[in-house]
Amino acid sequence: MTSTSARITAVDTYDIRFPTSRELDGSDAMNPDPDYSAAYVVLRTDAADGHEGHGFTFTIGRGNDVQVAAIGALRPHLVGRSVEELCGDPGSVNRDLIGDSQLRWLGPEKGVMHMAIGAVVNAVWDLAAKRAGQPLWRLLAHADPEWLVSQVDFRYIADALTPEDALHLLREGRTGLAEREADLLERGYPGYTTSPGWLGYSDEKLTLLAKQAVADGFTQIKLKVGADLADDVRRMRTARAAVGDSIRIAIDANQRWNVGEAVEWTNALAEFDPYWIEEPTSPDDILGHAAIRRGVAPVKVATGEHVQNRIVFKQLLQVGALDVLQIDAARVGGVNENLAILLLAAKFGVPVCPHAGGVGLCELVQHLSMFDYLALSGTTENRVIEFVDHLHEHFTAPVVMRDGHYTAPLTPGFSATMHPASLAEYRYPDGTFWAADLAGREQEA
User: How many domains is the chain partitioned into structurally?
Assistant: First the structure.
């Protein structure tokens, strides 16, 4: 099959779950028992090069049933499409998937369907980057600015960011790109780690992991808070004693509080100099975040991992509701919408510090931050990517950290490809791990 006539032949889905709740990895005030999971999709083609597009969206367990079904509902939009046309214009599939009126009714552009669209769109970009023989960050950074603008949906955000604004930002952002790329390849992109701070960890484990993080070169760690104030005061005191005064400690409430509680609780922890308070209240409460920001300054307000689309991000920026914008690679509608959000952040001068961790989120979001540094913001000052040292071994091109920095990936694609053996072992409910686990539970019963 020639490259010009190759088509998408299949859209395969997988329900992949890992039993992380058993060690309390990932535990926080709102999610005490998460099983880190991925609703995983593979775009298969009949092209002679054999490339596939891999993508996923992150969940924490049973919701994967719904999420995999949502991805499957998009299959008719993909099978039979020209691979060359799809990879030459990923925005076309993004527009088609969002524009399906019957599925759009379930959103629009939010929730399970939007996350499914993000998984598919990310798989298209993975395929495009593999066919181009480049890691996605480099493909994006060296792309023609006019073409990048064509990939952005400006509907509902043109009052804050016009195509002309975006083109100006991208043209200006290219200045010094070569020097920054050399710096990125040498030093990497700064990260911070949440690994010490899960709510279910003992003070001893917190201390051990916090000290290890500093030894590993991290200049910022993060602690989960919000379940019990006395516990949080003790844990913050413990963490500050472990890392000293020069290391930033961010705190994350995972949407636990009302607005007034958020202000009171954050101020009660202020003596330990928290750098930011993350997700202090509902991700949909734009004015609430603005009130919290006024009430907790100089502690910064950060949010974004559950913000559902570019329109909500626009409003958070317009009313000055956040100091740190946290994109998520798999929450919104994939790369195309994240381009819009990065451009909005650049327009408003707000630093982007992505959410990561989970299953494969570190692998994905590094590409978006590296593009942002090289071709848009031009800086890593006060910008860090979250890092959690979980489950990277299941990916064929896992994240590599060096001295607290993400090493720029060089493997072509979006770093989304999981090992076939991992898919076979952790596919739910009939993968080898889960089948054996279920059999063991039945025997115990």
Answer: 2
